[in-house]
Amino acid sequence: MPKKQLFYLVLIILFAAIIWFLSADKKSTITTDNNFLVSDTASVSKIFIADRSGNTITLDKKENIWIINNKYEVRKDAIETILSTINQVRIQRPVPKNAFDNVVKNLATTGVKVEIYTNKKTPEKTYTIGNSTANHLGTYMLMDGTENPFIIHIPAFNGFLSPRYGIQGNKVNEKDWRSTNIFKLKHENINAISIKNFLQPKQSFTLINGPLALLDHSGVEVDFNKEKVLQLLNAFELLNCESYKDEKEKIEFAIPMHELIVNNDTLRTYAIGDLHAAKKEKEENFTVKRMHATLNNGELMLIQDYVFNKVLITIDQLQ
Prior knowledge:
By secondary structure, the protein is α+β, with helices and mostly antiparallel strands. It contains 6 helices and 22 strands. It has helices at residues 3-23, 76-88, 97-110, 226-234, 275-284, 305-308; strands at residues 46-50, 56-62, 65-68, 72-73, 90-94, 112-117, 125-132, 139-143, 150-153, 167-168, 171-172, 181-183, 192-197, 205-208, 213-215, 221-222, 239-240, 243-244, 256-262, 265-270, 290-295, 300-304.
């Protein structure tokens, strides 16, 4: 056979072998069943997350408002992040053989389960989220009903994914999802505001809305600056705490600073630190960066001064 014909014959055989190899590769584990993303996040009605320590989170969409564990409104940024994540996740690559056993073991012992529902009784997607890769640019995940985990990422996002699901240290916490909103009142819905200043009692006051009236610490009606009063009333339209404390610290011995009553809600603030620090604040006009607070004797919160100094004011600031 001429060399030229032999060359073409070998070339044809080589191409045929490549085509057969690609079409006959049955070992690939990437299938449509391993598609972790949810394309239509508007259809997502519930997300269930459970860690291996028994902590569970249920996010329910009720009339376009997300509620956590049937108790609290969910933080807007938190729900937007997780919905964006489940829409953008992609398979980066299969788990390398030398890491496979350890990844599977970690997923089984510390992995966090995620169920995503789209107005159905059964979840649309169920998968387990594990640790990050060594370079923190991928996250190990395993689709329910399959045997092979994958390294998952969001293209162009540099970081691992578990925090975007509200997972910290392989655990979930209800407080991480709760809305931090304390007051969300328009000024026309405020009947009265009362502030008792424990460090400066004579600076306490009561403001009555409709008709406007300002009463001093002894209940005597005094003059006021209408523009400043309206600024105070409008300041309650959006007030958020910084965070909720994981464990309610004892505050019965803490230094009370303010008692703020708005309609039927009572916010009490407490100094962080000892009596000396509170006296220093009073005597030297020291700026308090943060305070502890409770709303209606509920959970302990951390509030920031620059947020609440708009409402925790003195009577002098209204005159």
